[in-house]
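Quarterly update from the structural biology core.
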Amino acid sequence: MKVTDHDERIHVLDNKSNVMTVIKDIAMSGLQEEAFYVLDIGDIVRKHQIWKEKLPRVEPYYAVKCNDNLLVIEVLAALGTGFDCASKNEINKVLSVGVDPSRIIFANPAKPASHIRHAAAMRVDTMTVDNESELHKIKKLFPMAKIVLRIRCDAEVALCPLGMKFGCDPIHEAPGLLRLAHTLGLNVVGISFHVGSGCQDPPVYHRAIYHCKILFDMAENLGFKPYLLDLGGGYPGNKGTSIDKMAEIINKALDEYFNTDAVHVIAEPGRFYVASAFTLATSIHSKRSVRGDENSSMAVTHNMYYINDGVYGSFNCLLYDHQHVIPIPLKNGCGKMIPSSIWGPTCDGLDKVVENVMLHDMELGDWIIFENMGAYTLPVASPFNGFPIPKVHIVAEEDIWLLLKDALPLTEHHFVIGNTPANLRLGLDIAGNNIDPWGVTDSTIDLASPEIMADSPDTPPFMYDFVEAPLN
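Predicted structure, tokenized:
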């Protein structure tokens, strides 16, 4: 893939720089007002190393829906992962970087007809099914497809349960679907399941793999030759989380039920790879102090901070992915902690990022950082109310550059050598053009400066009155 001047490339950092120093460089430049991300490619590489170490038999097929950033896809393709796609557009995006169709599973059990026809045209022939009508549809549109039967085996605790929408009952429905597929002359090549996104019930994997073994045997008795076991997703990816317990249970179950090289085992990790790789920086553009209590009508009882990203943007994960975000002020505060809330920029009252948190007093222009923002954020973000989706700056340490610079589809053209170039610090694109129409290039603006709120000499003085505003 040719990288144009206007595409963001990977900035290679020296040994004195890291994600937080880059964030500080951009935020403190005085020229950056919009929210932005910093993506650490090295974090993805390290996650891949952990996966290969903990689950050596399980080949990862990255769930594109989790974060479809093109550089993420290119890095994972360079590392040799497969891809789990849910639509023809996701298929096209993965194919565009040179991934072979055989390394894609069309893992949406309910596919529009046009998407099945497109998969056939693109030679993406492995796809999941969990109902009778889908089998009939595939028989008509793509009879040579390789069918993976998806069963339901729900985790007791998960961020996003999926069994309510997808997966057939492994005991009562799956045998009938196997018989129907045999009658239709379709080729069932394997069994899959998905315990739920963000699984917090590791033993569920043992139960699911046990059900798959029973269905493998049943499929073989019908004359099929199944060889693919798909363990789905559910693997955590935030900082401080681990897949060790899941890996222990999965490896034990594979040894117990599928102790053979004849079965190819894959999984569909999404948030595991990208959640901790993305850090979001937001700035405070407005502030409202709620005053008055039983002791003093002038005391601040609650601060409401309005930042330049919200639930219609990156923080849609609060609504759709049930995430819990933790605000981290970029500058160290002092004094007493004040009850606070954080709000997005839109005119919708629903746009609340953090409901109640204790923070030091902050001012306009101060920055708040949110870690673990790589999963189910950007793909769902919208420019509602005219507020832009944050730009992503991409960085890597030198050892990561040396590892990836010749690993196709990545080339040296994807990298910018040198420590955090000035155009990155100033929020500019790779060609050095100002991408912020509100930016100022000949001076800096201190958004926290008292002069911003000061009256001009010709402005008559205002009388201010503090009004107690109830918090919902």
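Residues 42-273 form a domain with the TIM Barrel fold (CATH 3.20.20.10).
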